[in-house]
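Forwarding the complex inputs:
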Amino acid sequence: MKLSIRPLLSLLIAAALMPCLCGCGSSETANGEDQHLEHFVPAHKPANFSKALEEIQHRAKHLSQHAGHSGDHEAGEFQELLDIVNWLPELAADSDLNESEWNSANAAAKVVAETLAKRRSADGKLSLKEISTSIENELQKLKSLVAAAGKPEPSMHHDHSHHDHHHDHDH
Amino acid sequence: MFATLFWGFAIRLTQSLAQAAPFILTGFFVAAVFRRFIGYEKTRQLFGGSEMSALFKAWVIGMLLPVCSLGVIPVIVELRRAGVKGGTILAFAMAAPLFNPLSMLYGLTLSEPIAILSFAGCSLVIVTLVGMIWDRIFPDSELKGIADESVHYGIRRMVALAVSASKESTGRSLLLIVCGLIGVGILGAVIPHASLQHHFNHDQPLAPIKMALLGIPVYATPMLAMSQMGMMFQHANSIGAAFVLLVLGAGMNIGLIVWMAQEYGAKRSAVWMSLLLVVVLGLGYAVNGPLFPKDVQPANHTHAFDIYGQPFTGAGSFASLTNQSIEKLKRDIMPHEWYSTELLALLMFTGAIVRLVDRRGRLESWIAQAPQAKEAGRLDIVVPPAVLGGLGLVGLVIFSVVGCYAYYPAPADVFEEMRIAKSEALTAGLSGDVTHADYWIDVYQEWTRKLEVGTFLRTGQVSDYQHWKARLVREQLEMLKHTVEDGEKEEARKWVSKVDRSHSRMRTAFLSDSGSSK
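Prediction (whole assembly, two chains):
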């Protein structure tokens, strides 16, 4: 077998380049601070299905009442409302709802999300008047499932962060 | 320092060898089937036809054969001898390690199935495009005039299969495989422990390029690459980087590059690699946005590549690292990997004996002899070697499909197996035993994926409801893992309790027809 020197050189070059990829030490940042490993959970993510429905109702009502008054702030609040609606399938799954109940919750959440999405035009303008009324029917359907969802899950949500691992940790 | 480098190298090399052993064994026997049964002319026909059809066939055959990027080496060595065109061989070499039926099914649990199907489609684009351009630039790249070595019927062809596989296992292919393993070993020695956790986040524009740099020397089996992609999807890391990982991490290694350079020279190899990188990175950036999982909160790290760096943090004495390394290898290497490694060692031993004893080539001469013609009965049919070889390859594919049912058991069986993993993971979570928790949480998470695939195989579907139940358990286990690593005992206790509840719901969702949780 003829082993050319070039491929072996490539191997050595690749090995030499690796420290550039990983940095010289472990995972320290340039300014010397440790980087944290985080699973970011947004502050507005409700703890459970029932809390999510309360939040949606409250936020939709607030947006309806203050439609057109709060500018950029309004866009942020609207996005948070949409986020909560989009979390409904997950929060409903994290409950005692059975499959057919979960399917109803999922379908209602989709209708709410679609209804809300129509309130934002292509150029990003919002029309939020009577937004709470437009989702009222679906919200009632969702609320009727709260009893079946069982005991609400306790809040576990806070930013989970920790320092880089300092132990043998493989996957 | 020396001990860390040495054991980093040794552990990663040994782990990779054990993971690759079943695929390498398969590769040696597939290569022997091509040489002795199918023969070079039929092999050329199999991989021949018009340019497009040859590349497409290379992709399909590659996808079906259960080999990895090390196991494919003996096969491509044989295809080269058979006179198959360079672009087609390289396309086959790239496609074969990317997917197999087991990993493809596993991949469907990652995110939306569209993600994995898109990745498979992109791999076809890569091998077709790069293979076609390369063949246009370098026509007539095939070897010519190598004598056919297919054998006659009878005991000779069975002996020939064993002789070919065993001799190749101590020949050139072995050296190329060792080159591939050395690449992984060097990474294990030089990359600091857990230092790759922050390089592939979704908001890092250079993540696919960094992955290309890492992906070439790393070795990943199709299943390992798929589970790493699973972790990247779970953490919502860069999807472009995940795609590059699949193509280069699973599809390339240093041994393949060395083979390419030996066979086609530096210039042609550089052209292939450049074309490959341009297409792979282009596609990686193209899929980065559209396939990003929209319902996952991005994490700022990934654990998927911890296995490529030094296995231990900090320095230790040689003796203490030796003990830790032995413990680690005992824990990490699966029983089927030990068996395959032993079989591989046996094959190599046989090959070495054949080479020593049969220096004059008497065995080869005997194999090449035509058997004396005998009057055959009406039912005594001589099966042509090509038919036998074809059946062998088809059988291998069928075996790997049937193997899916064993690898992904029925839901009830999965829950039986999962009981041990759950118990170990949650107990370790409560006691704060980090190493034990990390290990068993991974095993537990793996079973939740097997649960989904096993259900899909038997019922033809996994409902959104079931998918969510399994996914929640995985996500909560991930949070538990982090709290244990941080030593947050009270927090870990809460997560243990939550995982326990979610597990019960998951069990009901998969085992009860109605999915009733009450």
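The mean pLDDT of chain B is 89.
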